[in-house]
Amino acid sequence: MTLQHYLVISAILFTLGIFAVLTRRNAISILMGIELILNSCNLNFAAFSRFMTPEDISGQIIAIFGIVLAAAEAAVFLAIILAIYREFGSIRPDEVDTLKG
Pick the residue with more confidence: 41 or 81? Predict the structure, then answer.
């Protein structure tokens, strides 16, 4: 596979992620869209690192760091969703209309 193949796959993932974020009304689906966007970014880091400087693994290291950050972000986001569900009884972002505690 060439660099262009990886970039096309990454663009498709990014587009699907943007579509999911903009069209979904469920907070879990929005989180999945954000994860698709982050994965497309990580794929770009790894692909460019492999094809531009094959002897350097800094792109792969950045991608692994991005995966770790995405996992931490998902854990925090899911904890927030659970707290919102306990408070409001729904995880639809448009139904949560107050910020008081």
Answer: 41
Does some domain include residue 36? yes
Per-residue pLDDT reduced to its tens digit, 32-56: 999 999 999 999 999 999 999 888 8
The Cβ-side half-sphere exposure at 87, using a 13 Å CA radius, reads 16
Residues sharing a CB contact under 8 Å with residue 76, sequence separation 6 or more, in sequence order: none
* Residue 100, in any domain of the structure: no
Rounded to the nearest integer, the mean pLDDT of the chain is: 89
pTM of the shown model = 0.80
Check which CATH number belongs to the domain holding 11 and give it.
1.10.287.3510
